[in-house]
Design brief:
By secondary structure, the protein is of the alpha+beta class. The chain contains 20 helices and 22 strands. Strands 2-1-5-4-3 form a five-stranded antiparallel beta sheet. The chain has a five-stranded antiparallel beta sheet with strand order 7-6-10-9-8. A five-stranded antiparallel beta sheet has the order 12-11-15-14-13, sandwiched between helices.
């Protein structure tokens, strides 16, 4: 909010105010024609308890200050502002609720004061201070005008003569040592003809000039950038009687405006150069600013959208989404990121929103939003996800095909090769029993041993290809068998723990879990340098959980053990993909030197879905 005194624009310096007020015991206020306070002294603050920040510029304060209904509007309505209201005693209500009777004195407007009346209030004990001022009002106003930070001038017509007056501030602004030097100088040299003609035209048309920017010439020839406020007073016949006004040095203000303009231009170039939509909104969903990139998403120009609600700019769903984000950021006072899909310009658009809380000039809560268009990225991610789903489905079919081929090979080994080898062993035994020479019997025995070794190898290969125990006995028994042969192969103590309850899961889920445990135990035997491994099986109403843990060397997260195995091995990566295909998950808990625990989790509803469930 701008200083209300700028409406005059008059601003007494602190030293001048203190000299005028005579300390903190005298109440002084300056009121405009509407009864609004433009000045509120230290004495006014002390006597009323109300700080100047609560009073200056307002006109709704007086009802609280004057409790007597006869006087509640006398300031606002001009009673106290009227000349001759000197010595009027009126009670005020202090901020703390206590009452205080003050005697009031009103000074009529001085020449050049632009209608401003000064009102002085005091307690009876301070009457002498005020009386001295009232007895010499011309001195009071002389000091008042001298203390202003702006120049004041007046031209009064006295018959055929023009009387000119100015305050010391104007003389200093124009480079003169005194007011008299200024008045004696040729004023036509101070105001260029073009500027003078323009101001006179405005005065003739409107009777006043407000904040008119002019360039005046100082005594030394330099230019004074100034702002003029002036008005014309005429008599009843319309003849000009007086021109009075103020002059304010605006060089610093203009420099600040130029700096602000340059700063805004740099900010605009920065915001426009980002190439992504940027907008600033308040808590009510009003767009305060946006760049042209954001405006293109709304189908218009940025200048036409500023100051309008988001719902008038974007489709309703998008506007509501932006507003929810803005309010969330304001409530938390923290930056946030969001991804959302909205309809913009008739197209489904994915946006990544980065929203940060900011403050306006007056401290108002605002949110600045940077939106990245990630529609192409989301489309690519969707394609990758589709390919991954297809690859997983293909991997699942390949796994099923592999399992069927293993079973076929195992059946062929058992039905053909193993049977033939067993028959050969039987025939060799018959031949060895009928041999008449010891040497022939020993040779047949050697051949029989070799064939028995081949039969054992064939049976072992058959079990490795497709363990019959998995389909014949069940999942837990198959794990017991697997633990036994793994322990023998790698000199590893493998223990199986389960709750003894039968698992009702599909054949495919049984096979996937068994192969996963087989691969994990193989990894333990080959790489973990462990002494012991434990396979634990448990189930509840929703999940089947199988864990494989060891006391080995452990591994780092993201190590080669989690990557696809070379040479077509199942590998932890493949284990993860197979379990994920069934709707499950794989979790790895491991640290170097502290062993490894891998948990395989399958939801029962998915474990039963692949075929008719049967006790494992």
């Amino acid at each position: 909010m701008s200083d209300p005194r700028s409406r005059l624009p008059w601003a007494p310096t602190p030293d001048a105010v203190q000299e005028l007020l005579g300390g903190p015991h005298v109440w002084l206020m300056a009121l405009d024609r509407a009864g609004r306070a433009l000045l509120w002294s230290e004495g006014a603050e002390r006597l009323s308890g109300w700080p100047a920040s609560d009073v200056v510029g307002g006109d709704a304060f007086w009802e609280r200050l004057f409790p007597d209904p006869r006087y509640s509007g006398f300031v606002r309505d001009g009673c106290l502002c009227s000349p001759g209201a000197c010595g009027l005693e009126v009670a005020i209500c202090r901020r703390d609720g206590s009452a205080c009777v003050l005697q009031w004195h009103v000074f009529p407007p001085a020449d050049g004061a632009d209608g401003v009346r000064l009102v002085v209030g005091h307690e009876r004990r301070d009457r002498a201070t005020v009386v001295r001022t009232i007895e010499h009002p011309e001195r009071f106003f002389e000091k008042f005008l001298a203390g202003l930070s702006v120049g004041v001038f007046q031209v009064r017509r006295q018959g055929a003569r023009l009387d000119k007056a100015a305050n010391p501030t104007l003389a200093r602004m124009l480079g003169f040592g005194s007011t008299q030097e200024l008045l004696d100088f040729d004023h036509d040299l101070l105001v260029p003809a073009s500027e003078r003609a323009r101001v006179e035209e405005l005065l003739n048309l409107h009777g006043s000039v407000r904040d008119s920017e002019v360039d005046l010439v100082r005594r030394d020839g330099t230019v004074l950038q100034a702002s003029i406020n002036a008005r014309v007073l005429r008599d009843a016949d319309g003849r000009l009687q007086m021109v009075t006004g103020t002059v304010e040095d605006t060089a610093e203000r203009r420099a600040a405006q130029q700096a602000l303009k340059a700063s805004k231009e740099k900010y605009r170039q920065l915001v426009e150069g980002v190439g992504e939509p940027i907008l600033t909104v308040d808590e009510h969903g009003v767009c305060l600013a946006m760049n042209q990139v954001a405006a293109r998403y709304a189908g218009g120009d940025a200048s036409t959208f500023e100051g309008r609600p988001l719902r008038d700019i974007f489709p309703l769903d998008a506007a509501n989404a932006f507003l929810r984000i803005a309010r969330s950021v304001i409530d938390t006072a923290r930056p946030q990121r969001h991804e959302l899909q909205v309809m913009l310009q008739g197209k489904e658009t994915w946006l990544q929103m980065r929203a940060c809380p900011v403050r306006g000039v007056g401290g108002e809560a605002r949110v600045q939003i940077l939106a990245l268009d990630i529609t192409d990225r989301k489309s690519a991610e969707g394609e990758v996800l589709l390919y991954q789903q297809r690859l997983r489905a293909l991997a699942s079919r390949l796994s099923d095909t592999e399992e069927r081929e293993r079973r076929r090979l195992a059946a062929d080994l058992h039905a053909n090769i193993s049977q033939s080898l067993a028959l050969a062993i039987m025939n060799l035994g018959v031949l060895r029993g009928s041999a008449t020479r010891p040497r022939e019997a020993d040779g047949l025995r050697t051949i029989q041993d070799l064939v028995e070794q081949a039969l054992l190898a064939a049976r072992t290969l058959t079990c490795e290809l497709s363990p019959p125990v998995l389909s014949e006995l069940g999942f837990e028994e198959a794990l017991e068998w697997l633990a036994e042969i793994t322990g023998e192969r790698y000199a590893l103590a493998v223990r199986v723990e389960h709750d003894g309850l039968p698992l009702v899961i599909s054949e495919h889920a049984r096979t996937v879990l068994f192969k996963a445990v087989q691969e994990l135990l193989t990894n333990v035997g080959r790489h973990a340098a462990a002494r012991e491994a434990v396979v634990a099986v448990r189930a509840d109403a929703s999940d089947v959980v199988v864990s494989v843990s060891d006391d080995g060397c452990g591994m780092r997260e993201g190590s080669d053990a989690a990557r696809p195995a070379r040479g077509g091995g199942f590998g932890l990566f493949n284990v993860r993909e197979q379990i994920r295909q069934l709707g499950g998950a794989v979790r790895v808990r491991s640290r170097p030197g502290e062993g490894t625990c891998i948990l395989l989790t399958l939801p029962l509803r998915d474990a039963e879905a692949d075929g008719q469930g049967a006790p494992a």
